[in-house]
Specification:
- The structure holds two protein chains of two kinds.
- Chain A is of the alpha/beta class.
- Helix content of chain A is about 40%, strand content about 25%.
- Chain A contains eight helices and six strands; from the N terminus they run βαβββαβααβαααα.
- In chain A, strand 4, helix 2 and strand 5 form a beta-alpha-beta unit.
- In chain A, helix 1 crosses helix 7 and helix 7 packs antiparallel against helix 8.
- Chain A is globular and about 50 Å long.
- The two termini of chain A are about 25 Å apart.
- Chain B has a seven-stranded mixed beta sheet with strand order 3-2-4-5-7-6-12, sandwiched between helices.
- By secondary structure, chain B is of the alpha/beta class.
- The longest helix of chain B is centred in the middle third of the chain and has 24 residues.
- Chain B is globular, with a radius of gyration of 28 Å.
- Chain B contains 22 helices and 23 strands.
- The chains are: A alpha/beta, B alpha/beta.
- Strand 2 of chain A pairs antiparallel with strand 8 of chain B, so a sheet runs across the interface.
Chain lengths: ~200, ~600
């Protein structure tokens, strides 16, 4: 089987590392070889976060290079645009359209470009935009954005909802299990509609 | 068999646990931090401490090894620079109890001041070195390292890089082996390295290395993977092995798990199959240099008689001399990846798109509520020069503060400052401060401070006390009252310490009180003697209580933007409405921005929406 490459990007604090860990755990429990890489640390200081998960029969490199990602999960608009080159020519980008201005924009020293969503729609083979915060709020809690995004992704991957929920149970405190399960389901519905 | 999805660091910790390790000591340093952090968190069987710095950690575990315990210390690459002195001695002294030294290097300096290649340390210090290629090997090689260390009576260097330390892969878990502590037996000839002893110990060390070389020639962790195509052979180690498998899936590969001592025979044998060898490694031509030296000469046929008799040179015609390709093609700077290697070798890579103009960067910044904020505002306001150091507070270099002049290495701030004052004179002490964090100060600032006192400096040292080692993940240090396991521990009082070295002007100020910080700095730089100012305030990750978020009263805001000089990510400026705005989800209510506002337009009562 060809290795499946999933690239995550966004801003520190959005739960990206947890999301990529969860994908790794699901893949491992389903019997695949899996590797994941991340650049963290500076993330808690408001910096960009990227993480890569690769699963398949045997995976060597933990990195995804430019043009290799079958799926890009962009948790924020600017970071989605910044990391477009990782998406493969046939890949799908799942985009949370939320804008988190970086400090140079906050201080007025730079502009947050207005045309990013349009640009991504044009340049990606398939784009699934979602107002992730709104959807996660309606599912119960905006902090479940990361699990919602995984729910959308899940319709493209060979793991069942049960397996995902098993993995979530391992990482999430039990009092938040229900709201995360709701967010995952909601994401899954969104994914199913988008996939058609 | 139980499996887990572990990072390389977690796998090393697990390996130490399974190997029966008794003692672990370290100083935090990305990308090594999680090794001892995980040991502290998960394995109470292993006595664990955050030492004051890496040199101390190395000395502590060496002492444990004297007592016949299995010991481990871990550090980032530059941390081994700090610990190098005891490390070199440890090679001569040997390891009664197995001693594993983990160096976690950082190609591409994701979180470091350089990307030095610590494989050279194995050669300089003369210790064997293992290079795992994934988390399973990180665990297995840790266990092997303890065994080799005890068998050959020598510390072992386990060399990781960021992509091994912080990548996750599947690991099969094992059980803890209970290993008895051998106990302490006095042995001055072994452990006192006066010249008379050291001369003997060096001879012994060279003999150990010869034996380890024989081991390296036949160990299964140095393996030839046969390929489909013999156009060329590849020699590689560590994370690079994975990139080789991605881009040359059909090639013959010699994978070195033990790269020092260098398995010359194995390499010669491998090389004899090919007309071309490709050496794939990150940063320095470490393997490449060994390969070239090995292939260039074979002195196995050399004997003293032949040299003295000036006998003709050994016929090298049957010695394979393939073309060796290494740093000529494989980049020396920054980390590798399959994409980067493909481009280096002129292989096809996918078409990709990017946004046509530069996108605004997203640099890391001081968190909302950070106690360092007001100090950097003050330095900027007073137009002071500031020598800096390593920690979250290095971010004081960023706009809008632009408040740092230098950052060199741990603890350099104070001594760099003194170098400047020594040359430029007392005048300079009125225009400059040395800035250092609390953990950094304990690490290697104390010595600089003592030097300042004895040198008769008139300088002002600013010790930023946020009660933690923040940048690496909020580990404790001797200035706080908890240890690595969160147990109570005596703390060293900063003010007493500074007074104790003979400084009279020592004062703590409230880091969140802008006026207090500005006035203290102004007074102290103008004072005619050495002084220490300690802006004190807890890191937001240490004190998680939050006050009510602030909000901007738009009726009072004049759009002057003074508040943006706080450089806080919770505060933005709305150009259309010409007012400042505060994000109530990010704001911690520290009030620093409110103190800057001249219109009293920033007030309490921001809503959490």
């Amino acid at each position: 089987m060809k290795t499946v490459n999933v690239f995550f990007c966004g801003v520190g604090g959005q739960g990206i590392i947890t999301a990529s860990d969860l994908l790794g755990i699901v893949a491992m429990k389903s019997g695949y070889d899996v590797k994941k890489s991340e650049v963290h640390g500076m993330a808690q200081r408001g910096g960009s976060v990227i993480s890569a998960v690769r699963f398949g029969e045997k995976v060597y490199s933990p990195l995804i290079s430019e043009g290799e990602a079958d799926y890009v999960l962009a948790f924020e608009l600017l970071e989605g645009a910044r990391n477009l080159q990782y998406l493969s020519p046939e890949g799908t980008m799942i985009l949370n359209t939320q804008k988190i201005p970086p400090l140079p924009v906050l201080t007025g020293d730079a502009e947050y470009p207005e045309d990013l969503e349009e640009f991504l729609k044009r340049e990606t083979p398939k784009l699934i935009p979602v107002d992730g915060i709104k959807e996660a709020k309606e599912a119960g809690n905006p902090r479940t954005l990361n699990v919602l995004m995984l729910g959308i992704l899940s319709v493209f991957l060979p793991f069942g909802e049960e397996e995902w929920l098993e993995a979530i149970k391992e990482r999430v405190p039990s009092k938040y299990l229900e709201v995360n399960a709701k967010a995952f389901s909601r994401g899954k519905e969104i994914g199913e509609r988008a996939r058609g | 068999m139980k499996r887990a999805f572990l990072s390389g660091n977690e796998a090393v910790a697990r390996g130490a646990y399974e190997a029966g390790c008794h003692l672990a000591a370290a100083y935090p340093g990305t990308p090594s931090t999680e090794i001892v952090e995980t040991i502290a968190k998960l394995y109470p069987e292993i006595k664990t401490e955050w030492s004051v710095n890496e040199k101390v950690a190395m000395e502590v575990v060496l002492g444990g090894s004297f007592a016949g315990a299995r010991v481990l210390t871990a550090m980032k690459h530059v941390g081994l620079n700090v610990a190098a002195d005891p490390f070199f001695s440890a090679a001569y002294i040997g390891a009664t109890g197995g001693m594993v030294v983990v160096t976690a290097d950082d190609p591409s300096m994701h979180s470091s001041q350089n990307e030095q290649d610590n494989r050279h340390y194995a050669v300089s210090a003369k210790v064997p070195m293992l290079e795992p290629s994934d988390s399973q090997e990180a665990k297995d090689f840790t266990i092997l390292a303890f065994e080799l260390s005890e068998k050959y009576d020598i510390p072992v260097l386990l060399r990781l890089t960021t992509r091994i330390s912080h990548s996750r892969s599947v690991v099969e878990l094992g059980e803890r082996k209970e290993v008895k502590v051998k106990g302490y037996v006095k042995n001055p000839k072994k452990r006192i390295i006066i010249p008379a002893h050291a001369r003997e110990l060096h001879v012994l060390l060279e003999e150990k290395l010869k034996k380890l070389q024989e081991y390296a020639e036949t160990t299964e962790i140095n393996r030839v993977e046969p390929g489909q195509s013999d156009d060329f052979g590849v020699i590689t180690s560590g994370i690079s092995y994975n990139y080789v498998k991605e881009i040359f899936p059909d090639a013959w590969v010699l994978k070195l798990g033990m790269s020092f001592p260098f398995p010359a025979k194995l390499v010669r044998e491998f090389a004899s199959r090919f007309e071309r060898l490709i050496i794939v490694e990150e940063n320095d031509p470490f393997l490449e240099t060994f390969v070239r030296a090995t292939l260039y000469s074979d002195d196995s046929g050399l004997s003293l008689e032949r040299v003295l008799e000036k006998a003709p040179m050994v016929d090298h015609h049957n010695l394979s001399r393939p073309e060796v390709i290494g740093k000529k093609v494989v980049p020396i700077c920054w980390e590798l990846s399959q994409g980067r290697l493909k481009r280096a070798f002129g292989m096809k890579t996918p078409e990709t798109k990017s946004y046509p103009s530069p996108l605004p960067p997203r640099p890391p910044v001081l968190c909302p509520g950070c106690p360092h904020r007001a100090t950097f505002y003050a330095i900027r306001k007073l137009r002071l020069h500031a020598t800096g150091d390593i920690g979250c507070y290095t971010l004081g270099l960023m706009p809008p503060f632009n408040a740092l002049d230098t950052t060199v290495c741990m603890g350099a701030s104070i001594s760099n400052y003194w170098g400047l004052e020594s040359v430029l004179g007392e005048e300079f002490s009125k225009k400059a401060v040395a800035v250092i964090g609390d953990s950094t100060f304990f690490h290697s600032g104390i010595t600089g401070l003592v030097n300042l006192v004895h040198g008769k400096s008139k300088g002002t040292v600013v010790i930023l006390d946020n009660s933690t080692t923040a940048m690496t993940g909020h580990q404790p240090h001797p200035g706080i009252d908890r240890d690595a396991r969160g147990e109570p521990a005596p703390k060293v009082e900063l003010e007493e310490l500074c007074k104790g070295v003979g400084i009279r002007r020592v004062r703590r100020v409230d880091a969140f009180n802008v006026k207090e910080v500005v006035e203290a700095l102004k007074e102290e730089v103008n004072a005619d003697e050495i002084s220490v100012v300690i802006p004190t305030g807890k890191c937001v990750f240490v004190d998680k209580t939050r006050k009510s978020p602030m909000r901007v009263d738009e009726s009072k805001c004049t759009g002057c933007k003074v508040c943006t000089l706080a450089g806080c990510p919770a505060l933005s400026f709305d150009k259309k409405k010409n007012v400042a705005k505060i994000d109530p989800l990010l704001c911690t209510g520290c009030t620093v921005c409110a103190q800057l506002c001249r219109e009293n337009a920033i007030v309490e009562g921001g809503e959490e929406s």
